[in-house]
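hey m, so remember when u said the tokens were messed up on ur end? i reran from scratch. heres the input so u can diff it against urs
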Amino acid sequence: MGNHRAGKRERSRGSRPSPVVPTTTLGYTGGGKRRATKPVHAGSRKGLVPGLASVPTAVGAAALLLAAGGAVTLSQNGSAPVDFSQASVRAASSDISAALANRQQAVSRDSRRQALADAADAELQDAADAQLVERDARVQKLALSAQSWADELAKNLWASPLPPGTYRLTARFGQFGLWASSHTGLDFAAPHGTPILAIAAGVVTETGMDGAYGNKTVVTLEDGTEIWYAHQSSYGVSVGDTVVPGQQIGTVGNTGRSTGPHLHLEVRPGAGDPVDPYSALLVHGVTP
């Protein structure tokens, strides 16, 4: 009766089978008694996806395949597979090596370029220094030449025969009157003892008393022109002395045929006949 009701209840719940639970025998008493059973638990946890190895196992396998020269292809979300083959590793290594080589070449080019620039700068500096030395030498040479020329000009420059402001002109060249013939020089009236100055560079060729000229000094210039200084009261140079413009050669006096203390100046080119001293002084930059 009880089994019959149980069978009806089973049929009313449907034909859905009961889940099968693995059992294990705990003991057997014999005599046809029912065995005691309990669920069996797995000894180790299986992977999340049946048939797929765990992550550590997959990584180890991939490493072994790479070491053996094999190929492992992974795919994510249907994207293109990533190749980890030994060839691809070699290709990537080759690309890195090429990039490093290119970088080294660029650094080397930059270093060579800098070295060339430094060498060019040094060469330009050396050239500039050489040009400066050459220029300084030329300037020094020009300075010496200019000084020599200035000295030569200084020797040829003429000066006033008396200090400025100490004299006045009283008789000109070519005048007639107190002289037996026309006047042969230019007279500078000045106080007795006023310094007489050489008007040009030359050599003293004569000093002494000369009749109507009184005490006279003659200076011969380089071109042979003679300058006569007459009526002196004293001499300041001797025959053979070299004089320069402005150098004192005597003092104003009243010796010879003279009406008062003055300097009688004559200019005789080539030791010949006299010319107008006033014009000669003007030509040489001196205004009496």
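this time it looks ok to me. Confidence is low (pLDDT under 50) at residues 1-15, 20-34, 36-49, 63-76. if urs says something different then somethings off w ur setup not the seq
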